[in-house]
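Example 363.
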Amino acid sequence: MKAYKVPMSYNEIDAAGLQAVLDSYKDDSHQKIIAGFEERIIMLSGAPQAVALNSGTAALHLALRLLNIGPGDTVLVSTFTYVASVSPILYCGATPVFIDAERETWNMDPELLEKALSELAGKGQRPKAIIVVHAYGMPARMDKIMPIAQKWEVPVIEDAAEAFGATMDQQWAGTLGAMGIYSFNNNKSITSFGGGALVTNNPQWAEKARKWSTHAREDRPHYEHLELGYNYAMSPLSAAYGLMECVTWKTKIEARRQVFEEYSAVLGDRITGQQELPGMKSSRWLSAFGLSDIKNLQQLIDNQDFEIRRVWNPMHKQGVFAGAKAYLNGTADALFEEAVCFPSGKIKAKDFQQMCRWLQKML
Ligand SMILES: Cc1ncc(COP(=O)(O)O)c(C=O)c1O
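Predicted structure in complex with pyridoxal-5'-phosphate:
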């Protein structure tokens, strides 16, 4: 790995802040720290239930298990996403069907979703779930997606791994479907240096997810296991870090939104970002932009100072999912050809100015 002067999304470890949180819990059990973090997630997101886990991927896996998804089942999922949105479908032995993005938000195209559901229904198939991704923190068109999902009676899992704090009409991404997941991994806006959460309004699901996350141990004085479980629980150290992050979450997200605005102001019509539609507020986890002119794209990516990366190569193109059905309109493929992510975390003003001057020359 190259050490960039300006990395993509770097979080420094605040050891003193972590120590202060641990001190405030010193007379309590470790479980209390985790419960404290869950309470904060509930308070901030407005989700009635939250289960803290050791990754967003684990949260997605449990969400699929809660919907009883297994071999022979189909799950519709955004193709323009990170692989972790899709792998848990395979962990369950189920089959992904990919849905392309629409041009404004770069998220699941509601028209293609409708087409997929109606075509599958014509063959007597009903997908067991839809995983909608809020890519780079930008809310998907949930105003359109939810009524379609409801019409076809398919539950929606929101992959809000990158969208902690993003909202639609003041409601948090992750709280609009049957279940939502967040990631707090090292590079996320709000981090616990490894962690995730499942949110839902169903208390039975939350209770089951919590139980399954600790090897499904029964509440007995001895070791008793009646169901298959996982080692997915969050560590108290991560929860303590997450608790600290929840104090400054708003400032951190506003700072990322500001970075996006500055790129837009400096580079003008040379770049086109994901578009916030009326009512939407993106968390702008990463500042991702389509480039009007891609002749220097490779040079941008190869530079040694500023970490610039192509956006995802869509999942329908990945060998690991070869053969999976996909409903496509060309958007995700086009984005892979023309769009990049710029450094988006905390950036020193001097470095940011230097990078912007260079980008002005390159684009
Ligand atoms: C869109 C998306 N889904 C799922 C995940 C999985 O989260 P985690 O890394 O916490 O397992 C990530 C994060 O890496 C992600 O970006």
